[in-house]
Write a structure and sequence with these properties.
Oligomer: single chain
Strand order of the largest sheet: 2-1-3-12-4
Distance between the termini: 59 Å
Structural class: alpha/beta
Number of helices: 17
Radius of gyration: 26 Å
Strand content: 5-15%
Shape: globular
Largest sheet: 5 strands, mixed
Length: about 525
Amino acid sequence: MMKKVLAGLGAAVLLAGMTACGTNDKPAETGDPKQSAAVETAEAKVSMKIMGNFASSNLSETDKLLFQSIEEATNTEIKFDIPPSTGYSERLQLSLTTGDFPDVVYFPSPSDAAFLKAVKDGVILPIDDYLKSADNIKNYSYDVSWDALRVNNDGKIYGIPRTTVIRSDGYWLRKDWLDTLNIQLPDNNEITLEQMIEIMRKFSKEDPDGNGKHDTYGFGTAAGGDKSLKPIFQNELGLYGWQESGGGEYKYMNPQYDVNSDQYTKALELTAKLFKEGLIDPDSPSIDATKTLERFQSGKTGAIDGFAGHYETFLSAGKKINPNFELAYVFVKNEQGEMKGLGQGTGLWGFWAVTRNAKDPQRVVDVFDYMLSDKGWDSIYTGVEGHDFKVENNKRVYAEPPLETFVRKNMVRRANDYMFFINPAMSEELKQMLVPNIEKAVKRIVMSKDRDFTPPIAKTPPYLDFNKKFSEVTTKIIIGDAEPSEYKKVLQDWHTKFGQTYLKEMNDYIAQMESK
């Protein structure tokens, strides 16, 4: 029966699209051959291929139905080239080298070396002229995202943002451990740093899992991409990236690079103290973020940082290991009692670049603009009627569990629309628990003024080689193999060799962006 319904739905979607577009194959006769030809030209169907990095190379049924409706609405034919996610970078590099690249290509970052070379070689087109009528893309992208995509020193934009909601996350706690230890959280889920550390201490010292062993740790973290540890609680200690310095040689400064400030050193000192006391997972230096989550869910650690919108996924995974697994979520206030946190990134979760092989760059932009329109966005967020949901008594009843959407939910997102992360089928009770935390993570952000800019000197081999010293010294300090003062020695050496140029280049860039 369901197959018949879906078949009927597919026909209905196609019919509705054809009705909305008119009879494109037979334009009205006007008696003027030139006008008829113009109509045919204006309404000609455009084909385009999109190369993206998704979890699956196969479109789900939801994905297929969605893109059928987009094709009808935009009079296009859309094809996908989806390499295996583990080999995406290599496949992308090969296509750029051979010239066999599609109309639209996904890049993970504006600083991606392959992207910057493609821009320089004229493979990637600036899209400023095509954005003039793209009101939805402009309305639902962050200003800072556009700044990040101006990469060619010509002021032009070289990509369509794949937006993600800029936010500053809090911390997941094991609620079952809190209950065992009779620890109560305030109704607003906001605590002080001292309270957070005391919770970590109890998780580490008071046998929260009740197994009679000293085998739990208060906090789990992981080595970063450079294999080094970073200080925890940076938001709570006021480390908000590049801000106005309030004096000194440079107008803009990051405490991490400030030889006249102890702010970053104090953050390292606190993390080292907590590590020595046994409140931080001792395996942290040798594991990645995935393993950190696994250790939290399996009962090795009682707290990790993370996104409130992952509640259902994390809870389900945890209960498979321990049926008593429960979650709580908190934000930790800074030393002034404020709810502030560094906004993550530039609002880009990668982006879509239009290549010189595109047959109609304007139509490409139009397709992405349609996806962000009210009608297109509703389909991306909620899915296709008859497949993802059905309407009963004027209410949408959603499929449970939600259907796979490998592509649909990974094409575009709206800036600040944090409801994207809430399953539309979620109960009102659960929404009331989760939405305030996600909303708070969005509202409390402090944006670093660097816009993810990398000064030219930081791309040189001598700088990259020296930069490893920062990674080495921070890890040594945290695990107790070096004193916090060692960071200042490395920083002073950096300042002498590279820092003055680095800081000037960064300040020049920020001043240029801030003046717009």
